[in-house]
Amino acid sequence: MDKHPLPQGKLWLVGAGPGDPDLLTLRAARLLESADLIVHDGLVGAGVLALIPPHVERISVAKQRSRHTMKQEAINALLIRETRAGRRVVRLKGGDPFIFGRGGEELDAARDAGIACEVVPGITAAAGCAAQAGLPLTHREDASAVSFVAGQCKNLTDQDWSGLAGHGRTLVIYMGLATASAIADKLIADGVSPGLPVAVIERGTTADARVLRTLLTDLGDLVARERVASPALIIVGKVAARADALDCLGAPGLIASLKDMACDS
Q1: Which stretches make up the Tetrapyrrole methylase domain (predicted)?
Q2: Phi and psi angles of residue 34, each rounded to the nearest 5 degrees, phi first
Q3: Does residue 41 carry a catalytic annotation?
Q4: Parallel, antiparallel, or unpaired for β 210-215 and 197-202?
Q5: What is the pTM of this model?
Q6: Please, which residues have CB within 8 angstroms of residue 30's CB and are 6 or more apart in sequence?
Q7: Which CATH architecture has domain 126-264?
């Protein structure tokens, strides 16, 4: 617990990390114990939710693709209303609040409403999942730059992804399962090698985690063939060949190609 009691009528945007409760920050754990109300996403790990004391009220605002339990405007209104009522409100978000978590929108709403708001960062899925897989996002021999993108973006085919993946770069794709085939086609069309290694990390940092390796040209087929389920992360780049993962390549000769790349990397 904090040495001093928390103020009344304050909002915290808190990152819950990628799933494993042991990856929760000390600050986040303390806030879970001290809150009056916790408003949480569906991607917050069950182990993290289990840390919430029984007397603390909780509200789930879980979102799924094309179906939201509560629209973002309603979530903003809930946070503002409960904080103005003098409650200590924790908005608990999977990963980090500011990386594809709409934390920026909620912070803007709090500022516009004139309520006190503090952001508590969390370990984002890219860092947590890659670490579990033994996959370095940067490496002196393979990658000196990392890009994070959302795979559910609108007008995917109209966007230029040519500088995001390839030599010396690592591309991390969040929320990309449903568009995996289109993402692979788009990257290849923008000049990325079809033979670039890819790792797909399903339920990363949890006991049920699964890490699969393939090549970019096989990405869409892999997701379908292995029935990869959300939440999952896609990592594209030479560093993916370093992952502690199961080779799941669907075309003749691809396993040999991947091993050759691993040796050359």
Answers
A1: 10-219
A2: -100, -5
A3: yes
A4: antiparallel
A5: 0.86
A6: 1, 2
A7: 2-Layer Sandwich (3.30)
